[in-house]
Fold these 3 entries.
Entry 1:
Amino acid sequence: MRRKKILCATLIIAGLSTMFALKTYAAEASMPNGTVVIGAKAFDLAYANDPKNLDEIKAALVVGGSVYVKDFTAVWIDNTSAKTVSATSIPSVIYKGPTGTLSNYAVGDILNDTTTSLEVISIE
């Protein structure tokens, strides 16, 4: 019985360690190169340049906010001044990928954690 408890505790610790490692990786993920941020929305450049998405892009521009572009070398550029800016200048946004998939990014170009927590009901 003691071995079972030790094994179970070891498995739980290993599982939690893996979960924290995954959370650390997710926190370091950033928007792909070739992204435009318009206010609180971000778009893959291919999506933004597709004529069928023009109304959506225009609507984001009308709502307003700063416009930033992440070039293909991972450098953020302020569209107004054409100067490079730190990723910490990027607001939280909802990013729309080239196929229309959505992702949430926190301030500073950091992918929000989408993992769910686990609840341990019993060890025995």
Note: The chain has two domains: 1-29, 35-111.
Entry 2:
Amino acid sequence: MGCAGSSFAKGEGNKKIRKPKPWKHSEPITRAQLVQKRDEFWDTAPHYGGQKGKIWDALRVAAEAELSLAQAIVDSAGVIVQSEDLTICYDERGAKYELPKYVLSEPTNLIPDN
């Protein structure tokens, strides 16, 4: 038995997911560049720890889904949402998952591809 604050209390609902706040990339970026950054992140993210087959895959699908579907995905995968925009989450074992804003939404300075 652990400390009451050390785990997600049973019966307590997960935080409701919301859209990330608008953000600006350090320099203007094209959609193709954004897609490339996202692909690179998802390809390397499991190497930072956590559960590849379950949690990382669920987070990727949730990041690419509409909010209501994303909520259902994280709830069914057992993801504990720390920040409502999904930038910080935990699994049931306490492993931390940090998602950069660029995998969750588009920057305000997105420019057209050439």
Note: The two ends are 58 Å apart (CA to CA).
Entry 3:
Amino acid sequence: MSDPRLTPDPARMMQSEPAQVCVPLTDLMRQPGGPRDRQLLLGADVTLMDAQGSWAYVQAQADGYCGYVERHHLAAALAITHRIIAPATHAYLDADIKSADRTSLSHGSRVAATGQSDGFIETAHGHIPRQHLAPVDSLHDDPAEVAALFIGTPYLWGGNSRWGIDCSGLVQAACAACGLICPGDSDLQEGALGSEVTDDSPPQRNDLLFWKGHVALVYDAQTLIHANAHAMATVFEPLQDAIDRIAQADGPVTSHRRLAVSPPRG
């Protein structure tokens, strides 16, 4: 049976046009106005398959997730040049940190540069500090380092941004920054990411531990980093404490997987 999260609804496949998210953040929903499944950040590429009234049915190009977004949150695709690498940033009216901030953008947002001036990259959304940007094709090599940028971010079911994120959203953000294709939900991630560790070797940095409905990233041999409803935030937690706590509520670890990433620096 096909997964409706990843399989477009044949009744909604009226067209196939490229489009792009043109707002800082939008919810991807199961039905128009329905519950949030995931979120899409500024600059996310989608395929527009149907548009009726104020809603658009799309498939996200990064992970294949299907759903509805508000139609006015989409625009024609721009040639993306940079991505946000800070936890979050402001886009200013002028190339001046004392000018009005026009909007805030989360880590992972993608923008098209229209110019450069005085330490800022100019975009249609405003002037963004150069320190907060990297070329769109540049990659990190340490998912755990990226995940740590989200420490303190409020927990949000289906969230994918610095304003709110869940366990699978955190893993997806960390993997995406390192060029790893990553599904949006933990059950899909468990079947797609890395290789299973079956020899009882201890967890190491950038391993993934899965439970029913949850995933966490190993930060070091004694510590996990994960977005979780227990803390209602992205936090560091002692690895064994987390295993014991989650086992009482949701059961044991269901798998231990190892990402294929470069060895951590230093």
Note: The chain is about 15% helix and 40% strand.
